[in-house]
Amino acid sequence: MKKARTEPARDWENPSVISRNKRRAHVPLRSFPDQDSALKYFTDESSDRLSQCRIKTLSQKNWKFHLAGKPDQVPSDFSCSDFDDSAWAQLPVPSNWECHGYDVPIYTNFAYPWEIDPPFVPENNPTGCYRTTFTNPEGWNDHRITLQFEGVSTAFYCWLNGVQVGYSQDSCLPAEFDVTHLLQPGTNNLACQVMRFSDGSYLEKQDHWWLSGIHRDVFLLAKPSSYISDYAVRTPLQISDDATLQGARLEVNVELTSRDKMALEGCTLEASVWHINESDALNPAAPQQFRQPIVQSLSAGDPLAWFAADTTSAANRQAAWHGAITKVGWDMMAEGQGPPPALWSAEEPHLYYVVLTLRAKDGSITECESCQVGFRQTLIKGRQLLHNGQPILIKGVCRHEHDERRGKALTEEGMIKDICLLKQFNFNAVRNAHYPNHIRWYELCAQYGIYLLDEANLETHGFDPGLQNNPTVPSNNPLWLPAMMDRVVRMMDRDKNFPCICIWSLGNESGYGPAHLAMAGYVRAKDPSRPVHYEGGGSRTAATDICCPMYARVHQIKPWADDMLEQRPIIQCEYAHAMGNGNGNYKEYWDAFEANPSMQGGFIWDWVDQGLINRKKLKDGPEVEFWGYGGDWDSPWPDDAQFNINGLIWPDRTPHPSMWECKAVMAPISFELIPMSEGDLGAEDGRQTVRILMRNKNYFAGSAGLQLHFRLLLDGQPLRMGDLLQQDPEAWLPGGSTQIAPQSAEELRLPIDGSEVGEMVAKAYKGKGSAADAEVMVELRATLLTSTRWASQDHVVAVRQLAVPRSIIKYGADPMETELGPPTGPHPDTPGLRLQESAESYGISGPDGLCIEVSRATGSLTRLEAAGQSLLAEPVTPCLFRAPTDNDKGGAGGRSYAARWEIAGLDRLAVAPSSCHTSASQPSPGTIKVEAIFVLEPSVEKRGLGAASGAAGVSEVGGAHFFSEEFPTAGEGAGREEDSSTTSAGDTRTEARVGVKVAYTIHLDGRVQMDWDIDAREALPAPLPPGLFKSLPRVGIHMGVAKQLGQATWYGLGPHECHWDRKFGALLRRYGPQPVESLHTPYIVPGECGGRADVRWSMLSPDSESGLSLAAISLSRPVQMNASRYGVATLTAAKHDCELEPSDFTHLHLDDLHIGSGGDDSWSPSVHKEYTVPPAQYSFSVLLAPISSSPDLRAPDAANDLWLAQRRASSIKQ
Fold it and tell me: Could you tell me if 354 and 373 are in contact, meaning their C-beta atoms sit under 8 angstroms apart?
C-alpha cells in the first residue's frame, strides 16, 4: 500500500496547475522604435537583428548552476538576492545540463523511465538551480517589461530579486511573466528552479532524449505604456480549379494594450506592406512599399476590447491593463493598386513584410512590430491537399531539434545547415516532430522555402504502446484536458503568422479521446486556412483532415486510395524508417505516390541520428569521442539502446548514403529516353540524335533557373567527344538552359552523332571485344544556373543515366569479327603449368613466380602468388552471412532475419568434417582444373559468437503503429512463402546444410576462373509462421586480399554505398582508385555496410603504380562488391563504429545475390520479397587475375580489357 501524502499537491505533480502568473501566448514581439529597424530584422542579414529593438538578452552567456538530487534538496534560500553562489559552477544558457556532465541523458522510445503513476514522478527528480544578474537598461522607465523563457525542460519556477515570479510547464513554448513591478535600478538577480520531471512529462513522451534545463533563449522585452500586444495575419485567396489566382486579400487583426483605457483614444495604427526585389536573392535590393499604407484611428470604446485585455498578475480591476482591437485589410487585386502578389510556396518562397506602427496622438512613433507574410492557401479538396490550388507532393522528413554537442539548444547556423541540406537533397517539407520549434526555425523555413507541419508538444505513447487500452490515455481523462488544450492553443497563438506552416498537428501517438475532438474543433474554428493532422486512434478519426498512417507499406495504402468513401488525402506522417543501413525500396513508395492522386507523400522518420557526443577509452588505445545512444552512460534509468539512431544524416550533418537515393527519387526534374522509330531523323543534316523527354515535376517553379549538361559514357568512362572533352575528359557538354513550365514536359534533342559514337566505340574495342556489347550511357544532369540561398551555382539538382539504344549507334563492321578470330591458347614455346599433389593441397606453379594452392580439406583457394607477391591473405570461401543491420535485427520472438540466420548457424558455417572431395586435371599445358565438392554446416566451436553479439535489435510492441505488421506481407497474391527447401517432412532440424561445388580453372598467366554451384535449399530449414518468407543474407564468396593492395577500383554503381533495393540514386561509372578505408560507411551501430551494387569488375591495387593488382571479374551477372578492412565477425560484435579493429588485410566479398537493406520499418522483417535471397540453388562464376601496370596500359584499363575479352569469349561459346 502506498503511503498517503499529507502535504499539499506539488505544482509539478498536479495536472490542474500548468502555470502560475504566465501571460497569454502571442506572436513573437520585439518592439522596434521605427519602421526601418522593424524591416531590417528580416531583410538585413548583415546586421544584429535584435540590436535596435527593446529586447535585452539574458542568455548566450554562463549562469551560476547547482544540480540538486531532488526538489527537496534545493537550497532553501538560493532565490534570495544575497545568496552566496560563489562556489557554484558555471553553465551556459541556453543548454541542456546533461550535455555538460550533470546527470545523464536518458533515451527511451515509448516507455516512461519510471513506473506509470500519474501525476506523480520519481522522488529522485534532478533539479537544476540557476542564478544570474543583469542591469536594468536605461530608458525603460514607464515601460511594461516582461521576462520570457523560450524553452525550459520540463517545469520551472523563477524569482526576480527574491520574489517569486511564476511557474510554467511545456518544454517547447515560451513562458512570459510581467516583471515590471519587480525590477529595480541597477543590478537585478534572477533565479530559476528547473525540475527534470513533472506531470507535464507524461505529455512529453516523445521518441527522443530526456534532456533538461533552459535550452532556449531568455530575455526581457520592454513595451511602451500603449503597445501592440498581438496580431493575426491572414491572406484569403480565391483560386480557380485550374489554379489561377482570381482574388487575394491581406487582413491583419491587431490587439493593443494600454495601461490607461483612454490612452489609445486619438492614437493611430499604421499598417504597411513591403516587398524586396528577389531577382538576386543573395544581394536583394532595399525593401519597397508594395501597397499604400493603411492608417486606422483607434477608439477606446471598442465593444470587443475585453477580448484583448490582459489581467495577468492584476490584483484588481484598477491594476489590470486594458485592451483594444482594430482590423486593417487590403484588396490585393484591386485595379490601379499595383501588380497582384506573388504566392508563397516551398519552390518559390515569395515573401512580403507587414510593419505595424503605433503612433501617439502627436504623430510620433510609439513602437513598431513586423512579420513575414506569404500569400498562401492550403486546403483539402477532392481528396487532395491543395497548396495554392496545386496538389503538391510532400517530400518530407520528421525532424527533432538535435545537436550532437548541445542537445536541444540549437544555433541559427545549425538550422540553416539543416535547411540547406534539405533543399539540396530535394526535400520540401518538415514535420516539427513532435513539438513546436525555436521561432527562428519558422522564419528561416519561410525564407528558404520549406513546408512545415507544426505539431503540439503532446505525446503519451507510453500509456498504451500496443493500442490495446485506449481508455487509459490522458485524452480520455478530463483532468488532463486543460493541459492538452493549453499546448495546442498556445502553439497556434505563437505560430499563427508563419507562412511556412501549412498543417497543424494535435501531437503524436497519444491515443484518441474527447480531448482530440476538442482540440481539433478549436483549431478548425480558429484557423480555417490550414488543415488539421493527427495520427492517433488509427489515422482516420474525426480529429484529422488527412489520412496520416505510420509506416504503411505500399500495398496497404493502395486500398485506401481506391476507397471512394474516403474523401481525405493520404500523407504518411512517418514512413521509410531511416535506421542505419536502410531506406530500401524508397522508389517503390514514390512510384505509388506519383501514380495515385490521393497519395501525396509523407515524412521520413527521421532527419538526424540523435547521437550525443560521449567519450570512452579504447582497448589498448586512446580516449576518443563517439556518438552515444541509449545506455551509453552509466545510468540507473532504463534505455532503448540505438533506436534513436535512425536518421538520414549523421549527428554532424554528414549525409548517409540513403540521402542520395532520396534525392534521386524525389528530383524535380526527370529524364526519359524517347524511343526512336526506324528512319526517324533528329537533325537537319539527317543524322540521328538521342531524344530525351525532360519533365518538370514542380508545381510552381519553371525550369528557367536550371542549366542542362550531358556526356556519353563507354563502360563507365566519358567518351572524348568534341573539343571540350578532348581537353578535359571529366567535363560535361552544355545542353543549354530550359524553359519548361511546371507539371510539363518537353523533348530535348541531344547533338549526338550515332556514326561518330560508333566509330569511337569501335576504336576503343579494337582487339578487345565486340563493340556490339558496349555499354554506352548518356548521362544528363540539371544544375543551378545561378547561386541561391541554399546552394551555389552549378549545384546538381538531378542527374540520370539512360542507356543509348543500339539502333542509334552506327558501328559499321564489328572489328572483332573482321580482325580477330576465336581466343587462342598460349604460344607453343611457352613453359606450361606444373601440378603438384600432396595430402593437404594441390599446388600449381608456372612462369614468373606463379604459385597457386587449393586445400584438399576445405576446397578453398588458399594461395595466389605472382611475380614474387602474395595476393591472398585469407582463402577464397563461400559466404552466406552478413553482419546484421538494424533492419535485419527487427522483429520479436525470433522472427527477425538476424535471429533466423543465427538459429541456422549461417554466421559460423564451416566445411563439415570429411565432406570435401577434390580432384585435379590438366586439359592442356597452359590450363589446370581443380574441382571440389563439400558441405557447409555450422561450426560447433563458434556457437554463441554470432548475430546477437553486437548491439540490440529493435522490437516494438505488436500494433504500436496502426499499420505496422507483426508479419510482413509482400503485397497482393503473395502472402505465403513458396518453400523451395528439400527438408523432409517431420525433420525438426534448424541448422543449415549447404552443398558446394567449385571448379578452379587456372591459366598460364595466373588467371583463376572459379565456377561456383551452391545448393542453399537447406540453409534455412526451420519452419516459419504464415506470412513470413525465408531469405539468406547473401550468396557469394569472401577472400582476404593482401594489405598492400589497399586501393580499390571498380566498374559498377557508386560512388556511395548502394544495395539491390536502394540503387536508383547510384550511377554506373568506373570509380577509383581510392583507399579501401574510404568505402566503409561509418554507421553509428556497425553492420553490413560499404557495398556497391551491379559491379562488373573490381580491382585492388598497391598505392604506387608499380606492383601487381588483383582483379575480380564477374563472368555471370554483376555482383554486389564489398571491400573493407573489417570482417563480418568484427562488424557483428561491435556496438559502436569506434570499436572496430581493422584486419591486417582487405576483406573482399563478391555476392551473386545480396538481400536488400529494407526500409518500411525497423521492428519487423521489412525487405520486400523481390529483394530477398530465397534458399535455392545458385550458380555463378568469377575470374581472379593478377594484373600489372605498364607505361602503355594502366592496371584499371587492363582489368577492363580483361572483362571485355571474357565477355567476348562468353559470346563465342554461346
Answer: yes
The Cα-based distances of 197 to 5, 112, 425, 450, 513 in angstroms read 19, 11, 38, 33, 25
Question: In whole angstroms, what is the distance from residue 557 CA to residue 571 CA?
Answer: 10
Strands 378-381 and 384-387: antiparallel
C-beta of residue 376 within 8 angstroms of C-beta of residue 343 = yes
For residue 679, pLDDT over 50 is answered with no
CB-hemisphere CA count at 13 Å for 1143? Answer: 23
- Residue from 448, 347, 449 nearest 702 by CA: 347
Burial tier of 705 (Cβ tally within 10 Å: 0-12, 13-18, 19+): middle
Which candidate in 98, 401, 535, 574 is catalytic? 574
Residues 753-760 have a mean pLDDT of: 82
- Short-list 855, 1017, 881, CA closest to 938: 881
Given this model, what pLDDT does residue 797 score?
97
Report the candidate in 518, 588, 510, 595 with the shortest Cα–Cα distance to residue 553: 588
**pLDDT per residue over 68-105, tens digit each?**
999 999 999 999 999 999 999 999 999 999 999 999 99
User: 1000: left (phi > 0), else alpha (psi -120 to 50), else beta?
Assistant: beta
- How far are the Cα atoms of 112, 206, 510, 603 from residue 457, in angstroms, in the given order? 16, 9, 11, 18
Return the number of other C-beta atoms located less than 10 Å from residue 100's C-beta. 18
Q: What is the pLDDT of residue 304?
A: 61
Task: Express each pLDDT in 153-191 by its tens digit.
Answer: 999 999 999 999 999 999 999 999 999 999 999 999 999
Q: How many CA atoms lie within 13 A of 519 on its CB side?
A: 35
Could you tell me if 91 and 62 are in contact, meaning their C-beta atoms sit under 8 angstroms apart?
yes
Report pLDDT for 964. Answer: 41
Q: C-alpha grid cell for residue 987?
A: 525433420
Report the pLDDT averaged over residues 41-63: 88
User: Within 10 Å of residue 1101's Cβ, how many Cβ atoms?
Assistant: 25
Q: Can 115 be counted among the known catalytic residues? A: no
Cell numbers given for 98? 546533461
Could you count the other beta carbons within 10 Å of the beta carbon of residue 723? Answer: 7
Residues 6+ apart with CB under 8 A from 278: 284, 350
In whole angstroms, give the CA distance from residue 307 to residue 917.
92
* Cα distances (angstroms) measured from residue 723 to each of 197, 449, 524: 69, 40, 63
* 574 carries an active-site annotation: yes
**Dihedral angle over CA of 566, 571, 572, 573, nearest 10:** -110
Percent of the chain scoring above 70 in pLDDT: 90
pLDDT of residue 665: 98
974, 1169 contact by CB (below 8 A): yes
**Residue at 69: amino acid letter:** G
Tens digit of pLDDT for each residue in 985-1035?
556 788 999 999 999 999 999 999 999 999 999 999 999 888 889 999 999
Phi and psi angles of residue 1003, each rounded to the nearest 5 degrees, phi first: -105, 165
> Considering 401, 455, 509, 1018, which one is annotated as catalytic?
509
The pLDDT of residue 3 is 46
Please tell me the least confidently modeled range out of 719-723, 753-757, 921-925, 1016-1020.
719-723
| Nearest to 890, CA basis, from 1184, 572, 1165 | 1165
Kindly list the distances between the CA atom of residue 1073 and the CA atoms of 409, 1111, 1198, in Å, as whole numbers in the listed order: 42, 13, 14
- Whether the CB-CB separation of 778 and 690 falls below 8 Å is answered with yes
CB 1140 within 8 A of CB 1131: yes
Residue 473 Cα to chain centre, angstroms: 31
Point out which residues pair with 1154 in neighbouring strands.
1034
The C-alpha cell 541554399 sits at 790
SS3 524: helix
pLDDT tens digits for 1037-1088?
Answer: 999 999 999 999 999 999 999 999 999 999 999 999 999 999 999 999 999 9
The verdict on whether omega for the bond into residue 154 sits within 30 degrees of 0, i.e. cis, is yes
